[in-house]
Amino acid sequence: MADTYAIVESGGKQYRAEEGASLLVDRLPGEEGEKVNLRAVMFRADKVVVEPKELEKVKVEAVVTEQLRGPKVRVFKYRPKKGYRRRAGHRSELTKLEVKSVKMLSRRPAQKKEPAGSSQQVEAKDEAPAKKPAVARKKRTTDGA
Question: What phi and psi, each to the nearest 5 degrees, are found at residue 72?
Answer without folding.
Answer: -70, 130
